[in-house]
Amino acid sequence: MVLFGSVVNAVGIIVGTFIGLLLRKIPDQMKQTVMIAIGLSVVILGIDMALKSDNFFIVIVSLIVGSLVGEWLRIEDYLHRIGTTLEQKIGKSQSGNIAQGFVTATLIFVVGAMAIVGSLDSGLRQDHSVLLTKSMIDGFTSIVLASTLGIGVLFSALPVFLYQGGIALLANVIHQFLSDSLLNLLIAELTATGGVLILAIGINMLGIKQIRVANLLPSILIVTIIVLIQYHY
């Protein structure tokens, strides 16, 4: 089953969220300390991923062009509107800031090398080990996020499933057109670009500066285009 890893990942997020909601009564000071710990961990993860690039100039160009496209499309505003709509449907009391939880969790779970590599493995080799590992990590992370940000984390399971499932389903098509060397190069630059976005998420969580990370998401597509052009020409 090509989508097995994606399904398990989504279920892990949902289960983790419900567990986290049961832990929401912990003291606010403890929640703040936990969020700082997560933020610091996310920053370190982002830096580690960003250093995987073989040509960081590609990453820089991708981020610049991607940010222009993202600001034009207003992706961040769109995601927040989805979160706000969910908030209105459910009611904000006892549920935390749904928009913030949805956007933060979605970006953390979607942006990263494991999502891409794991989905490719699921589609190409029916090997779900990477996504199953990611499911455990995301499940634990969703526990902590839900305990501090509320039920909005739950709804991130849908975009995670659609994103990873889409990559898995298209993997066979991608493999027909890309050599192993090109695929490895592409993964390296995607990892580095995703690392910068992860770093930005960590900065947001630490409250250092609010960065519209969602508006940087087109960088993932831009870096793919640049790598393909560079490789062939």
Structure commentary:
With about 230 residues, the protein is mostly helical. About 80% of the residues lie in helices and about 0% in strands. The chain has helices at about 5-20, 30-50, 55-75, 75-90, 100-110, 115-125, 130-150, 155-175, 180-205, 220-230. Helix 6 packs antiparallel against helix 7. The model has no long low-confidence stretch (mean pLDDT about 85).
Number of helices: 10
Rg (CA only): 17 Å
Low-confidence segments, given as residue ranges, are none
Question: Fraction of residues in helices?
Answer: over 70%
Mean pLDDT: 85
Give the tally of β-strands: 0
Shape: globular
Largest sheet: none
Structural class: mainly alpha
| Share of β-strand residues | under 5%
Query: Secondary-structure element order, as H and E?
Result: HHHHHHHHHH
How far is it from the N-terminal to the C-terminal residue, by CA?
A: 37 Å
Task: Pick out its properties.
single chain; 233 residues; mainly alpha; 0% strand
Write a compact overview of the structure shown.
By secondary structure, the protein is mainly alpha-helical. The chain is about 80% helix and about 0% strand. The N and C termini lie far apart (about 35 Å).
Describe the protein's topology.
Blueprint: H1 4-22, H2 28-50, H3 56-73, H4 75-90, H5 98-110, H6 113-125, H7 129-149, H8 157-177, H9 180-206, H10 218-232
Helix pairs in contact: 1-7, 1-8, 2-7, 2-9, 3-9, 3-10, 4-5, 5-7, 6-7, 6-8, 9-10
Protein name: DUF554 domain-containing protein
Organism: Metabacillus elymi
Pfam family, one: DUF554
